[in-house]
Design a protein that fits this description.
alpha+beta; 3 helices
C-alpha cells in the first residue's frame, strides 16, 4: 500500500500506520446482477478474514452498489454514504464523538449505506436517500436484517453488527469489536 492509495483518508497521526493497511481487490455482485471488481482498504491483521466474508457474500449473490476506497470521495464519509459506497478504512472520528472511529483503525466495514442507514434513536437519519430503508425489516436487495446471512457471515469472523446496538442503529456497520 502506498501513500498515494490513501492520500485523502490517511494522514500522520492516524491510529494505524500505512504499513498496517492493506488494499484488497474483490469481485462482488452488483444490483445489476453483474460481477464487478471493488477495492477495500482495511487493517492488514483482518484482511484475510474480511476477504473471506466478501467471498461468502459473492457466493450468496448478495448485491453491493459499489465498492471503492473513500479517497474517491476525497475522504468524505458523507459523500461516500450518499453514493451508497461500501467502504472500510477512513481516518476519522466516530459519529458524534471526539474519539477515533473503528474505521480509523481499518477495523470496520460499512456495507450498502443507503439500504442500511445509520438511524438515530429518535428514528431519523442523516441521508435523505435512505428514508425508504429506515423501517426494518425490509425484504429488499442489499438490506441487512438481524440474524440474516450477512450478519452471520461477519459473525463467523467474530465481528459485530451496528444494527444490534441499543439506541441508535448503524445497519451498514460491521466491526471487529462490535462498536
Amino acid at each position: 500500500m502506498s501513500r498515494d492509495d490513501v492520500r485523502q483518508s490517511w494522514r500522520p497521526g492516524c491510529p494505524v500506520p500505512l504499513s498496517g493497511l492493506r488494499k484488497i481487490t474483490m469481485t462482488y455482485w452488483g444490483f445489476d446482477d453483474q460481477a464487478h471488481t471493488g477495492v477495500l482498504v482495511i487493517n492488514k491483521k483482518v484482511a484475510e478474514d474480511v476477504a473471506s466474508v466478501f467471498g461468502k457474500l459473492y457466493e450468496m449473490r448478495y448485491p453491493i452498489r459499489r465498492m471503492v476506497p473513500v479517497d474517491v470521495y476525497k475522504g468524505s464519509d458523507n459523500d461516500s454514504i450518499d453514493a451508497d459506497n461500501t467502504s472500510a478504512f477512513n481516518c476519522r472520528n466516530a459519529t458524534g464523538s471526539g474519539n477515533w472511529s473503528n474505521h480509523a483503525y481499518g477495523l470496520a466495514v460499512d456495507l450498502n449505506p443507503r439500504e442500511n442507514p445509520y438511524v438515530y434513536a429518535n428514528g431519523s437519519n442523516a441521508h435523505r436517500n435512505a428514508d425508504a430503508f429506515v423501517d426494518r425489516p425490509l425484504k429488499k436487495p442489499g438490506v441487512i436484517n438481524s440474524g440474516d446471512r450477512v450478519v452471520r457471515a461477519f459473525g463467523q469472523i467474530g465481528w459485530g453488527w451496528g444494527g444490534s446496538w441499543s439506541g441508535a442503529k448503524d445497519y451498514q456497520h460491521f466491526s471487529e469489536n462490535g462498536r
